[in-house]
Design goal:
One of its GO terms (molecular function) is methyltransferase activity. Keywords: Methyltransferase, Multifunctional enzyme, Transferase. The chain is α/β, with parallel strands linked by helices. The protein folds into three domains: 243 residues, 3-Layer(aba) Sandwich (Rossmann fold); 114 residues, Rossmann fold, CATH 3.40.50; 223 residues, Vaccinia Virus protein VP39 (Rossmann fold, 3-Layer(aba) Sandwich), CATH 3.40.50.150. The protein is 30% helix and 24% strand. The chain has a nine-stranded mixed β-sheet, with helices on both faces. Strands 20, 21, 22, 23, 24, 25, 26, 27 and 28 form a nine-stranded mixed β-sheet that branches. A five-stranded mixed β-sheet has the order 10-11-13-12-14, with helices on both faces.
Length: 692
């Protein structure tokens, strides 16, 4: 039996609907939205004494169900199909005497002005507005004008719809321009995965007298899980908010039917602010053999640890899911702008929502475990939040790491999952000779991190590798008597501070383009300047070019300026597949200037973070053109690759010699009374070095 129209235009044809309902017979046809799902929304806007008009009623049971439950009895139903009107009159007759069915075109109604308090439309607008052709839009304008005419001021037009973007946009723009209040409800439970994937929405347009001039639009959305509406500033934002909910419903439907081959990421937003509160990643492990108890689990990442490799990368999350032994693991990252009470509170807040992401085959009433590290949600304290004209919005925060250690981090919020700089914090110690009486002894507060910076500890593995690269400097002595170092990129200052403190004869010049970062490093990361440490607030490109010009003007016999040059500078352009350094820093003319200011036996150390394989190969080729000797050290579990570049191939050293020099340098750096991180072994940093 062919019930679908040959073309969308037939949706507006009385002949088509007559044929449709004759073929369908007495069986009610509901486009979408069963009465139990719609009832909570309709109950808010339909009062028992209201006079209700249902346009395009068809043979839906909605009016009958509203009548039978006592929601409203004075209901007038209209349709252009004579067949369905006669059918519905016969079906109701004396059963519902206060409800009527009339043959009438909603584009030209016979009712007087302001005759109804409610106009109800279930799928009719969707059927009429099938395209955005001029004739269709004109028909919809006529429909809206008639609805507006027969509604009283304060009356409501309730439109049940799938909210296709062009349908919602048309309705919102028309009625908001008329001065009406527009609210969109998502119908709870309407995204039935087995019956209908797309969620159903109810537009609630409340009629107000049009105020001359430009009155502010009132546009709101009311998600299914809350009663309180959220205000949005434009029709475009309202359409976008609805589209997000539609995409989420489609995603949940897909995840409920098939395992996901790629990791799926989504944000759950705070109801009040609309800002992300949780970031979820759905990770399936095909290798895990399913049993009753290992289908599905939720893993709460402790605050501040979402940037770690295990939690912050696809490969890490895949390893986490496999080691946890669940077929599907949903990892949950907590956002720094939000407040969380405890694990129980998070579990209560998420339990309903995460079940929408359950895998296929999950047994009914299966209890889903919530997992974490150590059973707590971690500690995060935001110490400083500001905006830099160059780096954008940033935060300095203290977080609790694995165990009892605390760390201070600098995060640029434009790339919030990347730690820009990090330092370990020292546990407070009482002054020498000071003793506390037993009764005054206080237990340490786990939520209050210490404040002093541990300058002996390099948190970043790539910084450890960069320092180890100084073993490549020429000469028999592993620790040069004099060492001139140029560092481009300050961040929190950990790298130049370590070189300054442990290479006692080193003179360190730091170039930083952003003066805000100098303030951050000084105030929050223990950085300070002195006779052997100077910071130049300048663009690194300009600074190096100026030095190169000065060196070129000197006599040929004059020595170049630096023993070591280190680039650890991030790119502000996130559209490029290389986040460190900016592309201009690895162009051949600039690299030749770097070589000009580097001593012949010196080393140029570059932190390269490049996800674009072709771009990376191009960078390496350019480096080889300028520097005859090139070593590379991959940082395990990270994208970083540290490149050691030397102006002459004569200083080439094999791995054995590098290890010997590294051990000698480490012995020289480990001075009595000076703290040294026992996990930092210079020779280990150079074990995996490859000559390119």
């Amino acid at each position: 039996m062919e019930l679908l129209p040959r073309s969308p235009a037939e949706f507006g044809s009385a002949r088509y609907w007559d044929r449709f309902f004759r073929q369908r017979g007495q069986c009610p046809f509901e486009w979408y939205g069963a009465f139990p799902e719609l009832c909570p929304v309709l109950h808010k806007y339909v009062r028992p004494r209201d006079k209700v008009l249902v346009v395009g009623c068809g043979n839906s049971e909605l009016s009958e169900q509203m009548y039978d439950v006592g929601m409203c009895e004075d209901i007038v139903n209209i349709d252009i199909s004579d067949a369905v009107i006669r059918q519905m009159q016969e079906r109701n007759g004396s059963k519902r005497p206060k409800m009527s069915y009339l043959l009438m075109d909603m584009l030209q109604m016979d009712f007087p002005d302001a005759h109804f308090q409610v106009v109800l439309d279930k799928g009719t607008l969707d059927a009429v507005l099938t395209n955005e052709e001029e004739a269709t839009l004109a028909k919809v304008d006529k429909m809206f004008a008639e609805i507006s005419r027969v509604l009283q001021v304060g009356g409501r037009y309730l439109c049940v719809s799938l909210a296709q973007a062009h349908v919602l946009k048309k309705a919102v723009e028309y009625f908001s321009q008329e001065g009406w209040v527009v609210r969109v409800h998502q119908v709870a439970g309407s995204g039935d995965k087995q019956q209908f994937v797309l969620p159903v929405f109810v537009y609630v347009m409340t009629k107000f007298r049009k105020i001359p001039g430009s009155a502010p639009q009132i546009l709101e959305i009311c998600p299914e899980e809350q009663d309180k509406p959220m205000r949005v500033e434009s029709a475009e934002r309202l359409v976008a908010a609805v589209k997000d909910r539609q995409h989420y419903a489609l995603l949940c439907s897909q995840l409920s039917k098939t395992p996901c081959r790629e990791q799926v990421s989504l944000d759950l937003c705070d109801k009040e602010s609309g800002k992300p509160r949780y970031t979820l990643h759905v990770v399936d492990s095909p290798s895990v053999k399913p049993s009753r108890d290992n289908h599905f689990a939720i893993f709460i990442i402790p605050q501040g640890r979402e940037t770690e490799w295990l939690f912050g990368t696809e490969e890490g999350r895949r390893q986490l899911a496999a080691s946890a032994g669940f077929g599907r693991l949903v990892t949950v990252a907590l956002h720094r702008e939000q407040h969380y009470e405890d694990m129980a509170g998070i579990q209560a807040e998420l339990s309903g929502k995460v079940m929408e992401l359950a895998p296929p085959g999950l047994p009914a009433r299966q209890q889903v475990p919530f997992l974490s590290v150590g059973g707590d949600i971690g500690v995060r304290t935001v110490r400083h939040h500001d905006t830099s004209p160059l780096s954008g919005e940033y935060v300095v925060e203290d977080v609790k790491g694995d165990g009892t250690c605390y760390f201070r981090r600098l995060i640029f919020l434009r790339n919030r999952n990347v730690v820009q700089s990090e330092a370990r914090l020292l546990a407070p110690t009482p002054p020498p000779g000071q003793k506390k009486r037993r009764k005054e002894k206080k237990k340490p507060n786990p939520a209050e991190p210490p404040a002093a910076i541990d300058k002996s500890y390099l948190c970043c593995e790539h910084h450890k590798a960069m320092v180890a690269g100084l073993c490549l400097l020429g000469g028999p002595d592993p620790l040069p008597a004099l060492l001139a170092v140029l560092v481009v990129g300050l961040g929190g200052g950990s790298l130049p501070l370590f070189v300054h403190d442990y290479f006692s004869q080193a003179h360190v010049a730091v170039v930083e383009i952003d003066s805000s970062m100098l303030e951050v490093a000084t105030r929050w990361f223990g950085f300070s300047q002195g006779d052997r440490m100077r910071v130049h607030v300048s663009d690194g490109l300009d600074y190096v070019a100026k030095l190169a010009a000065e060196v070129s003007a000197l006599p040929p016999a004059a020595p170049a300026q630096y023993d070591a040059i280190m680039f650890d500078v991030d790119s502000k352009d996130l559209t490029v597949g290389m986040s460190c350094p900016p592309p201009a820093f690895v162009e051949k003319p600039f690299l030749q200037k770097v070589k000009t200011i580097l001593k012949p036996e010196g080393v140029f150390v570059l932190n390269l973070v490049c996800r674009d394989a072709r771009l990376k190969e191009s960078v390496l080729a350019t480096l080889r053109e300028v520097f005859p000797l090139l070593y590379a050290r991959r940082i395990e579990g990270e994208v970083n690759e540290i490149l050691f570049c030397q102006p002459s191939s004569e200083g080439r050293r094999d791995p054995t010699e590098l290890g010997t020099r590294a051990r000698a340098l480490e012995r020289a750096l480990r001075q009595p009374g000076r703290p040294w991180d026992s996990s930092y072994v210079l020779a280990d940093m150079l074990q995996a070095v490859k000559i390119l």
